[in-house]
Each structure stands twice: as structure tokens, then as C-alpha cells.
């Protein structure tokens, strides 16, 4: 596979930065660098999804590292891991064999920021730090970015999506995220992109009706987040390509009040909600993205992982794929809504609980 072929596969598969930035991944690989930095630091208190991905798909990550070295010529692949997670990532340290390195970094949640992560990985080599500013030919300046110092940085889930695209030919249709809160044990789900947060919370065991108006749902963690639902039961939000957590807290309380939240890896591991939600609203664009050209129209029946958006040539644009099977209920405002074809919510909750007891 050539570099150009791999980059186009990433573009068509719809891969963006899953860690929260949402920058189109294919564009980073258009200009290969000497080093690939794997951001495995789970940069929010209470998060477990990325660590579980590394545990469940350990062999897949090793295959991917080997492939990316072969295709893009990386001189180094370096995994940045929190000191507190050293034991969890012990299998990687034992299996590195020159293919990659594991570097332990301080247990600070700012470590999810790329420049800080790089600075701590290369503590004694300032030449590899990202410059604060870069002079441009026209005399202007811009903030430094990782490629200025020879790095491509990817979040763990982003890399797993690259694996699925390159090895399995599968597009991005789901998001791995945690549902948790001070009164809600943490669960990790693979959720269809565009799913209703309220419906996901119902499956997770939250009584939406009884808590109407009393709880807020944060899209993210205690530090880096956006308001998802200000008052549960009085609005909704939808799982995006960059949604990493649904933090359920009392309405009116600041999310940072839960910076010390303690969670445990769920015994059931990652539970898939594919086919278990009643509808999705899939965005054709995003923060950095020009909307893809819709390939479906209202009333059309679509299959799971069917392509519903073709990337446009102007600006950054990616392929978009159906995250559930069903009927297209609308195509408007850059969003394709699909309904039907799902397991009823009560049955979905029962199935999820059954999986948890196996």
C-alpha cells in the first residue's frame, strides 16, 4: 500500500481526531514526520475507554504500528502513558522489541494537550519540543504545531480507527465513550455516532423521568467539556465524533467540582450499542470539516455502514457512513437523520444488563 492510498482510505473512512480536537486525520499523514506520538494518557479524570481499547485490541495495535512504520517510514513510535497506568500498559513494555517505545509521563490531565505531552516525553531534548511560534515566509508568525518538531500525534481511538480502516476496510460509525457521574458507576460503550445522549443514559440505567430537570449532562469530562444537556429531560444532545464522555452531575454544579472523581474499569468491559438505539442524527461536517455531499434522500432505506456522504474537494472533508440501519427521516442543515431498525430501549437495557452478568 502506498502512502497516498493509505491517506485516501483514512479520508474516505471518515477518521478525525477522536480525542476531542476533531482535526481530519488524513491531512496529518499527507506530510509524514519522523515520529508518531501515541497519546495514551486518558486526559480526563475517570476515563477508561482508551485503556480498555489497548487491553482488548493489544495485538491489533501492534499490527498497526508495524504497518504505519512500513507505509509512512516512521523512525520512532512512542506511546505516552501516565505513571499511574504503568502496570496497565505493562504488556506493551514487555512486547516492544524495537517496534515502539513506552514513555511514562506525569499524572496530570493537561498531558492530553499535544505540546505538553511532547515536552514531557522529550524532557531532556528541547530540540524536539514544539516551538511556541513559527516564522512564515511573509514575515508573519503562527503558533507552533507538532509537525514543526517532527511529530504526528494521534489519540488511541484515532489509531484504532486507522487500524479498522486499513486492515478491515471499515469506516468510522461509532464512538467509544464513558458514561459516569458521582452517583452513576462508570460504563464504557461503543455508541453509534449521532445517537441521543438521553437514550444512551436510559440504557445505562439513568431514570430520565424521575430526574427530569435535576441533572445536567456534560459532553466530556470534569475539565475539557461542553454543556450537553443543561437540564435532563428538557432537551437532548447527540454523540459526536469527538464525544468521549457523558458526565452526569447535579444541575447548577460546576463540572470541575468532580475533578477528583474515582472510577473503576467496568467488569463487563466495552459494551456495544450498535443496533440498540432508535435513531441517529449523523453530521456531514464538523468543527474543521466542510460538509460532505449527501448520497441519500428522505425516505430512503439504508444499511449499517452504508456510505451516506461523499467528501467534497474544497477544504477538509471526509466520507460519512450510516451508524445504523433504517429509514432516512431527513437530510437538512448538514445532518442525515435515520430512524427505525433498532432494538426497543427496554430490550436494549435488558441485553446490556445481561452482558454485564456474563
Notes on the structure:
- This protein is an alpha/beta fold and 358 residues long.
- The chain folds into 3 domains: 3-168, Rossmann fold, CATH 3.40.50; 174-275 and 345-356, Ubiquitin-like (UB roll); 279-339, OB fold (Dihydrolipoamide Acetyltransferase, E2P) (Beta Barrel), CATH 2.40.50.
- The protein is built from 9 helices and 19 strands.
- The protein has a 6-stranded mixed sheet with strand order 10-9-11-7-8-12, sandwiched between helices. The protein has a 4-stranded parallel sheet with strand order 3-2-1-6. It has a 4-stranded antiparallel sheet with strand order 13-19-18-15, with no helix packed on it.
- The protein is globular and about 55 Å long.
- The model has no long low-confidence stretch (mean pLDDT 93).
Topology of this protein?
Elements: H1 3-13, H2 25-29, E1 35-39, H3 49-56, H4 58-72, E2 76-82, H5 90-95, E3 101-105, H6 114-121, E4 133-135, E5 141-143, E6 151-155, H7 156-168, E7 174-181, E8 184-192, H8 197-203, E9 215-220, E10 225-229, E11 245-250, E12 270-272, E13 279-283, E14 293-294, E15 301-302, E16 307-310, E17 320-321, E18 326-332, E19 335-339, H9 345-356
Parallel strand pairs: 1-2, 1-6, 2-3, 7-11, 8-12
Antiparallel strand pairs: 4-5, 7-8, 9-10, 9-11, 13-19, 14-16, 15-18, 16-17, 18-19
Low-confidence blocks of residues: none
- Annotation field: number of helices: 9
Total strands: the figure is: 19
Distance between the termini: 41 Å
CATH class of the largest domain: Alpha Beta
CATH homology superfamily name of the largest domain: NADH-ubiquinone oxidoreductase 51kDa subunit
- Summed over residues and divided by their number, the pLDDT gives a mean of 93
Any idea what the shape is? globular
Q: What's the Cα radius of gyration?
A: 20 Å
Residue share in helix: 10-25%
How many domains would you count in the coordinates? 3
Order of helices and strands: HHEHHEHEHEEEHEEHEEEEEEEEEEEH
| Helix/strand/pairing category | alpha/beta
Fold-level CATH name of the largest domain:
Rossmann fold
CATH structural architecture of the largest domain: 3-Layer(aba) Sandwich
- DSSP strand (E) fraction? 25-35%
Across the major sheet, the strand order is 10-9-11-7-8-12
Organism: Rubrobacter xylanophilus
Keywords: 4Fe-4S, Electron transport, Iron, Iron-sulfur, Metal-binding, Repeat, Transport
Pfam families: Complex1_51K (PF01512), RnfC_N (PF13375)
GO cellular component, one term: membrane
Amino acid at each position: 500500500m502506498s502512502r497516498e492510498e493509505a491517506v485516501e482510505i483514512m479520508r474516505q473512512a471518515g477518521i478525525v481526531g477522536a480525542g476531542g480536537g476533531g482535526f481530519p486525520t488524513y491531512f496529518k499523514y499527507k506530510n509524514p514526520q519522523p515520529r508518531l506520538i501515541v497519546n495514551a494518557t486518558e486526559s480526563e479524570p475517570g476515563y477508561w475507554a482508551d485503556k480498555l481499547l489497548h487491553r482488548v485490541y493489544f495485538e491489533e495495535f501492534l499490527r498497526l504500528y508495524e504497518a504505519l512504520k512500513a507505509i509512512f517510514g516512521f523512525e520512532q513510535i512512542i506511546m505516552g502513558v501516565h505513571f499511574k497506568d504503568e502496570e496497565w500498559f505493562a504488556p506493551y513494555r514487555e512486547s516492544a522489541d524495537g517496534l515502539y517505545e513506552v514513555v511514562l509521563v506525569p499524572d496530570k490531565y493537561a498531558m492530553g494537550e499535544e505540546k505538553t505531552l511532547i515536552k514531557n516525553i522529550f524532557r531532556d531534548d528541547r530540540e524536539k519540543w514544539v516551538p511556541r511560534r513559527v516564522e512564515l515566509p511573509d514575515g508573519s508568525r503562527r503558533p507552533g504545531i507538532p509537525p514543526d518538531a517532527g511529530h504526528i500525534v494521534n489519540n488511541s481511538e484515532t489509531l484504532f480507527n486507522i487500524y479498522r480502516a486499513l486492515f478491515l476496510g471499515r469506516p468510522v460509525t461509532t464512538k467509544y465513550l464513558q458514561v459516569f457521574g458521582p452517583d452513576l458507576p462508570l460504563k464504557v460503550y461503543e455508541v453509534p455516532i449521532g445517537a441521543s445522549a438521553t437514550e444512551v443514559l436510559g440504557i445505562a440505567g439513568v431514570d430520565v423521568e424521575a430526574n427530569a430537570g435535576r441533572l445536567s449532562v456534560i459532553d466530556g469530562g470534569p475539565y475539557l467539556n461542553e454543556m450537553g444537556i443543561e437540564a435532563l429531560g428538557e432537551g437532548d444532545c447527540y454523540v459526536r465524533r469527538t464525544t468521549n464522555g457523558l458526565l452526569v452531575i447535579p444541575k447548577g454544579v460546576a463540572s470541575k467540582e468532580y475533578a477528583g472523581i474515582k472510577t473503576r474499569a467496568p467488569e463487563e468491559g466495552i459494551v456495544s450499542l450498535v443496533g440498540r438505539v432508535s435513531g441517529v442524527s449523523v453530521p456531514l461536517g464538523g468543527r474543521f470539516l466542510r460538509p460532505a455531499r449527501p448520497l441519500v434522500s428522505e425516505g430512503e432505506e439504508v444499511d449499517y455502514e452504508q456510505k451516506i456522504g461523499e467528501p467534497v474537494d474544497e477544504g477538509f472533508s471526509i466520507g460519512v457512513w450510516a451508524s445504523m440501519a433504517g429509514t432516512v427521516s431527513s437530510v437538512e442543515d448538514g445532518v442525515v437523520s435515520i430512524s427505525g431498525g433498532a432494538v426497543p430501549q427496554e430490550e436494549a437495557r435488558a441485553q446490556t444488563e445481561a452482558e454485564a452478568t456474563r
